[in-house]
Fold this protein.
Amino acid sequence: MYGTYLRLDITVHDGWRAVVRAAAKKLTPRARCDPAHRNARHRFYREMLTHHREAQRLVRTWRL
């Protein structure tokens, strides 16, 4: 899933809303709207946010 995070076309300085918006655009319209996929969708968003926080932590650590 890290590869998907890299393809979101966001920067490490973007906020969490930009990450969720970009991740939602990667999903098919049916996956975005189907109540049966709600839990999977939330897991996907959380994973993208986790990768984003890790990238931000690396930037802060190494002052990039």
Observations:
- Helices lie at 2-6, 16-26, 29-33, 38-62.
